[in-house]
């Protein structure tokens, strides 16, 4: 039994012995004329989006990218 990586753009999952591990995501947001990046830990892209928007409820989502090697 070893490390298995399953990757798709919409759900980038790291599977370890049958369980999910959280990874880092860089979420780019826009609020009041300012663009900034928020680093969050989440299992997949949708969870990263929800976490970043929960932390910044008035923000607009610009982009989400996995931080590879985290």
Structure, explained:
With 70 residues, the chain is an alpha+beta fold. The chain is built from 1 helix and 6 strands; from the N terminus they run E-E-E-E-E-H-E. The strands form 2 sheets. It has a 3-stranded antiparallel β-sheet with strand order 1-2-3, with no helix packed on it. Mean pLDDT is 80; it is low at 1-17.
SSE map:
Layout: E1 3-6, E2 13-16, E3 19-21, E4 23-31, E5 34-42, H1 45-55, E6 60-66
Antiparallel strand pairs: 1-2, 2-3, 4-5, 4-6
Features of the shown structure:
70 residues, alpha+beta, three-stranded antiparallel beta sheet, elongated, disordered N terminus
How many DSSP-defined strands? 6
Mean pLDDT: 80
Lateral arrangement of strands in the main beta sheet: 1-2-3
Shape: elongated
Subunit organisation of the chains? single chain
Low-pLDDT stretches are 1-17
Largest sheet entry: 3 strands, antiparallel
Helix/strand class: alpha+beta
| End-to-end Cα distance | 21 Å
Q: What integer value in Å does the Rg equal?
A: 13 Å
Give the ordered list of helices and strands.
EEEEEHE
């Amino acid at each position: 039994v070893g490390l298995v990586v399953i990757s798709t753009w919409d759900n980038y999952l790291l599977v370890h012995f049958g369980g999910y591990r959280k990874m880092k995501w860089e979420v780019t947001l826009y609020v009041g004329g300012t663009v900034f990046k928020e680093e969050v830990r989440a299992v997949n892209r949708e969870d990263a989006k929800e976490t970043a928007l929960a932390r910044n409820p008035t923000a607009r989502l610009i982009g989400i990218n996995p931080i590879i090697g985290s």
